[in-house]
Amino acid sequence: MQDQKKQKQLLLVGNPNVGKSTLFNSLCNRKQKTGNYAGVTVASLSGKYTYKNEEVEITDLPGSYSIYPTSEDEAIFSRYLIQEQENYVGVLYIADAINMKRSLLLFQQIQDLGIPILMVVNQIDEAEKRGIKIDTEKLSQELNVDILRTNAKEHIGIEEIREAILNNQFKKTSQSTFEIPIEQKGLVYKISENTKDKNLYKIWTLLAADTYLGKIERINEIISQEDAKCNVPKRLQIQETVRRYQNIDKIISETTEKIPQRKQLLTEKLDRILVHPIWGYLIFLFILLIIFQSVFFLAEYPMNWIEGFFSWFSTFSSEHLPEGPINSLISNGIVPGIGGIVIFAPQIGILLYFLYLLEDSGYMARVIFLMDRFLRPFGLNGKSIVPLVSGTACAIPAIMSTRNIENIKERLITILVTPFMTCSARLPVYSIIIGLIIPDESIYGIKYRALALMAMYLLGFGMSLFSSLILKYVIKTKVKSFLVMDLPTYKMPLFAYDFKLVLGKVWEFISGAGKVIFTVSIILWMLSYFGPSQKENQSIASDVKLEQSYLGKIGRGIEPAIAPLGYDWKMGIGILTSFAAREVFVGTLSTLYSLDDEAPEGRLIEKMRLDVHPNGEKVFSFATGVSILLFYAFAMQCISTIAVVYRETQSLKWTLLQTFSMTVLAYFSALIIYQILK
Amino acid sequence: MPTKILEMGLLPETSFKVLYQAPFKGPLYIEYGSEKTRVALREEEAKFIKVEVLAL
């Protein structure tokens, strides 16, 4: 019975790279859902499992080194931990046996906040290989917490964790391990009396957290001007960290034994090559090449199957459904429209899968290390490389991945320029246009079309850098940029887990874009099926010729604006609809061409190739093609990206400025190139 | 100085080694403590660290 089941919610917390996601994956065997885009506070992963008739929901918080956030990612972490306290029973804290010292800092901070906690020490066997022996029993007494040992990778200790959660082995301590320094004691007591909060450490964190934690407003009333002057938050944090580590060092020396090892570790060997000033860059370039090669060539097979299936389905439905408007709507509107989007699923999936694997293995941190120096002159951070590379899949996850960039200015610039990167939604537009205007010939075995496509990628990347350079001088900030980043040990990536994540993301993409395209196809079809009537007693005529329909009229109406760019009214409709999402262009054109009874028969690209103006000139000439390519390279034509930019920047000004300037740039560069090439 | 350096365990009286540096005065790759923790820092951040040479 569903309602007899008990429900329990808990948080999974730990430093970055301690095997949190592996453990999460082994614990939660069902109903995983990736962060809800629309939610503001929650941008995390949660999963469920049932053990002995108790349903447990675990939320995997982003990794952090302390409760004082330095980036948006960590801010989410702290807010969730502190503000959502009534909503979870306790924290499952993952400590890393290899780096127990660093793990204990955050652990004790959470413990001191009065949050019930249970510790899991992960990678014990890996630590033993390195000669580190931890006496967990003694540690458990010292820290006043229950400790479980696991090796999440080999599924060792998972049942024990579930059992401990069932038995509510979360412990709460009343005694703080951190003593408030004498200078602040008076003030902390004063606030405690006023707010009736007995937890002195919690009050201390409010004094010590500077920007992100969101102070309680009443505190400002209590703290007088004078008090505020002598409390520099950053200094308090430093004081706390140093004191805590002194205490932690003592605990570690009492509970841990270390036998020096001579054996060289894998990470040391690998890094000698992977961060090498020459080999490091060559290998990174090589990995990028492999990724793009797979995106184009590996994805070709599933893409052909998908295309084949949808064209079969379209013919099938047009033959088997009763003649009439519904038949035309389904087989000419909806099916080709949806097919146009599903076709990119393989490319997005492959790209994302590679990115997840690189991130997981620990390699991404090395790429950041290598790229930092080259991105800095552009006002970016080494960490910007991850969003920029992910931007070649889709700007939405890319923009979300800027959260770990600490500096606000660098983060904003990265968000603003990422949509210039050639995302996979541009691919179908590029490939169909390049197919139309570039001959299928090759030089030294390299296809011209492949070169043209590469040029488009470089153009996007170049434009990102160029606009960062401009933004660097436009955006003012006093916050200093910095890079302090952990270089984790290399790990075997979680192939199966990442694959599941990719499937989820791809499905999100298809269903999200699918809804838009579904709606757009229906609207397009209605506008094209009906038109102003020629007869006197009738205002609307149905089943009219495309040129006579409302859609045709709208297309003709916007022609003056787009004719200087070399577009006809069909392309105009395509561009208008692509402001919902770029990929809609191909779907729209395929709908338009299949609705047009006078258009030549065959595959879309053939129809487009053979389409001529009334004067006999080709509709898709070289100049028009290049103009379309430039327009799509620069224009901000993606509602989801605009929404994500707004959510991440919380600034209407920057969101609008970005959309506006990208689109203006697109219009004028397309205009200029067409006028030159014509 | 970013408090993150301290939070990551690079504290006063910790011994550390600079293993690599990215080209053109890029970030430093350092290893510290008995845990052999590895982090990347820029020269600007590294300047905040007072050092004493232990071994060449």
Name its key features.
heterodimer, A: 678 residues, alpha/beta, Rossmann fold, 7-stranded mixed beta sheet, two-stranded antiparallel ribbon, 30 helices, 59% helix, B: 56 residues, alpha+beta, 3-stranded antiparallel beta sheet, 3 strands
Oligomeric state of this protein: heterodimer
Shape estimate of chain B: globular
Sketch the major β-sheet of chain B: 3 strands, antiparallel
Structural class category of chain A:
alpha/beta
In total, the number of strands of chain B is 3
Biggest protein-protein contact in the assembly: A-B, 40 and 30 residues
Q: What do you see in this structure?
A:
The complex is a heterodimer of chains A (678) and B (56). Chain A is α/β, with parallel strands linked by helices. Chain A is 59% helix and 9% strand. Chain A is built from 30 helices and 14 strands. In chain A, the strands form 4 sheets. Chain A has a 7-stranded mixed β-sheet with strand order 2-3-4-1-5-6-8, sandwiched between helices. Chain B starts with a helix and ends in a 10-residue tail after the last helix. The radius of gyration of chain B is 11 Å and the shape is globular. Chain B has one domain (4-46). In chain B, 14% of the residues lie in helices and 29% in strands. In chain B, strand 1 and strand 2 (28-32) form a beta hairpin. By secondary structure, chain B is an alpha+beta fold. In chain B, strands 1-2-3 form a 3-stranded antiparallel β-sheet. Strand 12 (484-486) of chain A pairs antiparallel with strand 3 (37-41) of chain B.
